[in-house]
Design goal:
globular; Pnp Oxidase, Chain A; seven-stranded antiparallel β-sheet
Length: 224
């Protein structure tokens, strides 16, 4: 039996309860570490679950940054240097990655305190997490203010990608199962990613959809 939670009900929730519920409504999300540094070389690493694909031509990615009403080291560093990195979180480092969400002082490096190794390239003025199996270096393209709650959508242009070529299929798709990266639900619950299938580009052909469903059903029956 389902229940109904109205907007008015949500307003009456305790702050942390409301945050946990609403943050988890979007389901499983990818977990990424955003690496930055300021012009003095002070490094910062922070976990985000809001990284999204923005476009392929030009190649853009973005993430949501909470309002800059208090110190936001990641955001301030990006504005100062114009660069940041996005790093997939490997399975064996999910505890370390979670710890980067703690409120460290500006002069403290999450790389050092949370067990990650900074890695640099000639192109990007921001550190990668060497332990990450898939690393993306970006230059700042645009900052969009979401007026409804003053959060910021940080959009970056992909300048380089670092990964093991064995993760790529012939079509350019990335096999995340091989990379052993993780998923996050809500603020503090982590999951393994498991591939369940690979489908062709969808077309408006219901007969093909029905045939695909029948084949899938037959495979399931054989497994059982």
């Amino acid at each position: 039996m389902e229940i109904k939670i109205s907007a008015k009900d949500l307003e009456g929730f305790e702050k942390q309860d409301r945050t946990n519920l609403v943050n988890g409504l979007s389901g499983y999300k990818s977990a990424h570490l955003v690496g930055t540094q300021n012009k003095n070389g002070q490094q910062n690493l922070a976990i985000f679950s809001s990284v999204v694909h923005v476009g392929a031509n030009p190649a853009l990615m973005g993430f949501i940054q909470r309002p800059a009403s208090v110190e936001r080291h990641t955001y301030e560093n990006i504005l100062e240097t114009g660069y940041f990195t996005i790093n997939h979180v490997p399975l064996e480092y999910y505890r370390n990655a979670h710890q980067t969400s703690a409120r460290f002082a500006r002069n403290q490096s999450e790389f050092e305190l949370c067990g990650f190794t900074p890695q640099f390239s000639e192109m990007i003025k921001a550190p990668y997490a060497a332990e990450s199996p898939i690393k993306i270096g970006l230059s700042l393209e645009e900052v969009i203010t979401i007026k409804a709650n003053n959060t910021l959508f940080i959009v970056g242009k992909i300048q380089e990608i670092l990964l093991d070529p064995s993760f790529l299929s012939e079509t350019g798709a990335i096999n995340l199962s091989k990379a052993h990266t993780i998923l996050v639900h809500g603020l503090e619950t982590y999951y393994k990613a498991e591939k369940i299938g690979e489908l062709p580009y969808a077309k408006a052909n219901l007969n093909a959809l029905q045939k695909g469903q029948e084949l899938h059903t037959e495979k399931l029956k054989k497994k059982l």
